[in-house]
UniProtKB/TrEMBL annotation:
GO terms for cellular component: nucleus. PANTHER family: PROTEIN AF-9 HOMOLOG (PTHR47573:SF1). It comes from the Eukaryota. InterPro entries: YEAST_sf, YEATS, YEATS_dom. One of its GO terms (biological process) is regulation of DNA-templated transcription. Gene3D superfamilies: YEATS domain. It is found in: Nucleus. Its main location: nucleus. This is YEATS domain-containing protein. Keywords: Nucleus, Transcription, Transcription regulation. Pfam families: YEATS. Residues 15-159 form the YEATS domain.
Length: 219
């Protein structure tokens, strides 16, 4: 005899065939030249990050992010356990940063590896450097989860960071899981981020968001 909780777990772990969930993300860096405060070891302050493409909270899907910095940094493996997934440092050199994303247990077992080349200097190196205008380098991507579990789907189906597919005919949605009171939850979105004025807009992300909103209304 199986316990009711076991049956419930089996239902929540059941894979949804012919369904995929996608999460539009942006990863990159923003760096500021330190001007008169610059020295030979620290010429720039910079922030590297992974954010929702429309600045939504990625904590609904991502559990933690690990940033692997150059070995010359103290403690080069930096673990960020909650959104926003970012870290700030100062230095003088450009190098490749490996970013590993770990997902919640109902999402995916395998981590995802991203690579970002930290950029400090503007492309036009002949022009004067400014302490006011940063160098911004961002990449757009979509993380796709094919055949999500019912539990994962129910948890994220009304979350703005998540793009849901057209559902197969005859498919009934599992009831959404109630979201905890937003006022009690630590905010993990990047809408009011101090650097948000420098974030780039990705038209694909905005289109996806509009599509998702239209789909929600049509259900």
């Amino acid at each position: 005899m199986s316990k009711p909780e076991d049956t419930e777990k089996k239902i929540l772990n059941k894979k949804l065939k012919d369904v995929e969930i996608s999460i539009p993300i942006v990863y990159g860096n923003i760096s500021f030249w330190l001007g008169k405060k610059a020295n030979e070891y620290q010429s720039h302050k910079w922030t590297v990050y992974v954010r929702g493409a429309t600045n939504e909270d990625l904590g609904v899907v991502i559990k933690r992010a690990v940033f692997q910095l150059h070995s010359s940094f103290n403690n080069p493996t930096r673990v960020v356990e909650s959104p926003p997934f970012e870290l700030s440092e100062a230095g003088w050199g450009e190098f490749e940063i490996a970013i590993t994303l770990y997902f919640h247990s109902d999402v995916c077992d395998k981590p995802l590896n991203l690579y970002h080349h930290l950029k400090l200097y503007p492309e036009d190196e002949s022009g004067p450097m400014s302490t006011k205008k940063p160098v911004v380098v961002e990449s757009y991507d979509e993380i796709v989860f094919p055949e999500p579990s019912e539990g994962f789907f129910a948890r994220v189906q009304s979350h703005p960071a998540v793009t849901l597919p057209r559902l197969p005919a005859g498919f009934t949605l599992p009831p959404p899981v109630p979201v905890e009171d937003a006022s009690k939850r630590k905010r993990g979105d990047t809408k009011d981020h101090p650097l948000s004025q420098w974030f780039m807009n990705f038209s694909e992300a905005d289109e996806l968001l509009q599509l998702a909103a239209a789909r929600q209304q049509s259900w």
